[in-house]
């Protein structure tokens, strides 16, 4: 019988493959925004669609940073004065909601941070980014949702929303270009427009997959995890996209976060599973889960939040059809973005 020679190199390669980390991606909603607690506010960028964080929101951002970086107890007391109601993805609603999952923070190694261009998201991302010395990548593709019928949404002659540019946001918020923010980053979805719920889901389908592809190309060994700082509706749509479940019951309170882990499946489309849904233990001293938001109608949650950890064994025909339609719409959106039409 022929014998098989196992070389030291082969042993090391096998051990390396076995030890390779699974990619994690964390979606966090921004902290409490100023207009949730006061009728007027001063926008850092001078837009009525761009409120800053409230004092509590800054504290929540500090608590989140301490929680996921493993540094401190996340008491949030060092927050300073500085959300989502302009679109329909973040308006204040009754506090509450439920979440499942536990642990996971200590396993995170966040090295890639993407943020919506709106001030409240950048302000939420900054405490962690500065702790980790990671420059933010501003991605309009995970920006706020504005309904087509939203009268507060300012659009230009091309129908594009008036969204702060990277350099405008940097100047308004005192960011150091090249240190706090990566001005060289080319966003997956460079422009935003008012959308229907289906168009929003399609946009996030394209954006989050583009983000994952970019990170996988830059970090093929999975040395770092991904953080996306966004708004309620985009957060829900992004998680649903990775799960291929358009009505997944995602929890989205202010500064709560949902964590997904990629399987060992082949790239570029690994299966993802949720390990934390609406995690908010870091906010216990700041009111817990607040302003939880969810869709109604066609994209309303399918089942209780706990269901997300296993998911239905088979989606309904309606859900499957919705998923197919969203995927088709996302492909069209990606093609339009590549052609410079978005």
Automatic annotation (TrEMBL):
Q: Where is this region: Disordered?
A: 37-105
Question: What ranges does the record list as Gly residues composition bias?
Answer: 79-90
Q: Name the domain of life this protein comes from.
A: Eukaryota
Q: Which SMART domains match?
A: PGAM (SM00855)
Pfam families under this entry?
His_Phos_1
Q: Report the CDD domains cross-referenced here.
A: HP_PGM_like
Query: Cross-referenced SUPFAM superfamilies, in alphabetical order?
Result: Phosphoglycerate mutase-like
What name is this protein filed under?
Uncharacterized protein
Native species of this protein? Answer: Physocladia obscura
Q: What is the lineage of its organism?
A: Eukaryota, Fungi, Fungi incertae sedis, Chytridiomycota, Chytridiomycota incertae sedis
């Amino acid at each position: 019988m022929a014998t098989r020679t196992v070389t030291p190199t082969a042993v090391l390669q096998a051990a390396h493959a076995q030890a390779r980390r699974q990619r994690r991606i964390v979606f966090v909603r921004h902290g409490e925004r100023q207009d949730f607690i006061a009728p007027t506010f001063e926008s850092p960028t001078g837009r009525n669609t761009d409120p800053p964080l409230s004092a509590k929101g800054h504290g929540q951002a500090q608590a989140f940073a301490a929680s996921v970086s493993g540094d401190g107890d996340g008491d949030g007391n060092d927050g300073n004065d500085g959300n989502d109601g302009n679109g329909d993805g973040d308006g204040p609603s009754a506090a509450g909601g439920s979440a499942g999952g536990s642990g996971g923070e200590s396993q995170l190694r966040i090295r890639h941070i993407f943020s919506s261009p709106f001030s409240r998201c950048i302000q939420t991302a900054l405490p962690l980014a500065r702790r980790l010395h990671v420059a933010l990548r501003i991605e309009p593709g995970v920006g706020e949702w504005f309904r087509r019928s939203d009268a507060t949404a300012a659009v230009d002659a091309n129908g594009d929303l008036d969204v702060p540019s990277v350099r405008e946001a940097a100047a308004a918020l005192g960011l150091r270009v090249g240190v706090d923010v990566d001005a060289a980053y080319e966003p997956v979805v460079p422009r935003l427009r008012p959308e229907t719920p289906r168009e929003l889901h399609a946009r996030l389908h394209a954006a989050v997959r583009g983000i994952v592809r970019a990170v996988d190309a830059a970090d093929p060994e999975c040395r770092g995890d991904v953080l996306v700082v966004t708004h309620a509706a985009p957060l829900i749509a992004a998680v649903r996209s990775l799960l291929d479940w358009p009505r997944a019951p995602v929890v989205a309170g202010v500064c709560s976060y949902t964590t997904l882990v990629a399987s060992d499946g082949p790239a570029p489309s690994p299966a993802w599973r949720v390990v934390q849904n609406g995690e908010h233990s870091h906010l216990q001293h700041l009111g817990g889960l607040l302003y939880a938001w969810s869709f109604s109608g066609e994209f309303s949650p399918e089942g209780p939040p706990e269901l997300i950890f296993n998911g239905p064994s088979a989606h309904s025909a309606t859900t499957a059809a919705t998923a197919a339609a969203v995927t088709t719409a996302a492909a069209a959106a990606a093609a339009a973005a590549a052609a410079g039409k978005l």
